[in-house]
C-alpha cells in the first residue's frame, strides 16, 4: 500500500472531489464499487463527506447547491503553500478563479479555478487535512490526466502556475506529455484534437485503481452507471472510461507493473 507523503511539493495532485445532486445515492454507488466508507467533512460549502478506504481518506463527495448548474465531474486538487498567491498567478496566466480562495474550517484553504482551455481544477493549502492518505491501490486514485485539444499552450499555463517540467511521450499518433515535479511524474496532458467531446470541452480525468478493469466495468453497470469507453490496453495498463449514475466520468485502471 502506497502511503502518500505528508508534505507535498506545490503542484502535486493531493485530493479529488465530486459535487453531486444526490449524496446518499452517490455514496452508495462508490461504496459498493470501491469499498469506501464515509464520514462528515467540513461543511463550509454545504454537506460534504470524506471517503475512506480501510480507514484512510481518499476522496470527497459534496452536495451541489440546487441553484448551481455545474457539470457533475471529478475535480483534482493541486497542492499549494499559498493558495492566495497561486490564485493570483492563475489569473495572471490566463486562467480564472471561480470559487475562493476561502477557508475550509480547520482543514485548510482552497480555491477552484479553470485553465485557459476551460478545464476545472482545485488548489489546496493543507492545514489539518493533508489530502489523500493513500494512492495507487485498488479503490484509490492512481493518476490524473488533462484531456484537451492540444497540449502545447495549456501545458505552459500549468508550468507557469505550478512549476512543472514536462516530458514528451514520443509517438507519431499521440499528442501527450507528462508533467513532472522534481523529476517525478505527477500527471499527464493528452491532446485529442477534434475527438474532444464538444459537450465537455477540456477536462481533467481521474483514474482509480482496480484489481480487474473488466470486472469493475460490469460492476459499474450493475450499480446504475455505464461504460463510456470499453476496456483497452494502454501505456498505463488496462483502462476503461465509465460514468456514475449522475454522469460523472472517471477512468478505471489496472496499472501495468512499473
Automatic annotation (TrEMBL):
Domain VOC: 12-126, 140-255
A family per Pfam: Ble-like_N
SUPFAM superfamilies per the UniProt record, alphabetical: Glyoxalase/Bleomycin resistance protein/Dihydroxybiphenyl dioxygenase
Coiled coil: none
Organism of origin: Streptomyces kunmingensis
Protein name: VOC family protein
Organism superkingdom: Bacteria
Signal peptide location: none
